[in-house]
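To whoever is on call:

I kicked off a structure prediction for a single chain this morning and the downstream step that reads the tokens threw a length-mismatch warning. I double-checked the sequence; it's 296 residues and nothing unusual in it as far as I can see. Pasting both halves so you can look.
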Amino acid sequence: MARLFFVRVLLGAGSSSWLHHRTKYFLACQAEPASLRYAGLLLVEKAMQQDDVVIDTTPEPRRVDAIGGWLWIIGAFSLYRRSWLQWTAMSALFFILAFALSALPLVSIAATIVTPVLVAGMMDAADRCHRGESFQVLDLFNGFKRNTRELLLVGAFYLVAWLAFFMILMLMVELLGLKSQLIVLSQEALSAKNTPAQSPSSALVWFGLFAFIGGLLVSSIYFFAPALVMLRGMRAVEAMKLSYVAFWRNFLPILVFSIAFVALTILASIPLFLGFIVLIPLALLAPYAAYVGIFE
């Protein structure tokens, strides 16, 4: 089935005021996604050569049904089946590098900054696989060859966001006097005794709710950002803004995806955790499947 690519161009009508601008739409229709994107880029390049032209090429995230969260898992598994050995090897290499970076005392912070570069390599390989092209395990490092600066900025902004959020949480703990309650709850969780648990205060409940929602907010600016930077060539800030919009516009399918993935994690842990051989690649491929479902 042919797919459509829209480029909106605002052309000046001879006046300096934007109120007199006219809107024209160029439509490129092509069966192959690679040719489709190339045709769209040609239109953009041609339009930018004119004077007083404003190009709006920002992808618009669509809203998908709640069942889309489960379809993302199916899509990720479909990609995994095509080249299961390569995906398993690439996922193992990804986690070995991530673990090695996080284990080093002075480099653990840098791991958060570098991780989007590796994730972008996975997204690039997944895009090749999705389009029927070949890829290699070392394509994991493609993020170091293309859009590296913006990917590192995504990691840096993401790290700063988490640090700021943790500082807010620590300040709330001190102001609300929740430190002792958190210590008691942690001791009860680690204790093997079947003693009745102390009921949390209302302040602690609200604190937990705030921490949960805040964590989602921080995660939302990152979820689609590596794919948008790598596959769309977007800048870090624009990609993180668009990731935020796409995340909350599709919160229900993301919730379904999260619940389904928790269930799959439990199932994968039953046979001596052998299911994680498949589950880990699925966890890395699912964001690409979500990206395709929302942006492609």
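Update from on-call: the warning came from a stale cache, not from the record. Cleared it. Sanity check on the structure: The beta strands are 3-11, 22-30, 53-56.
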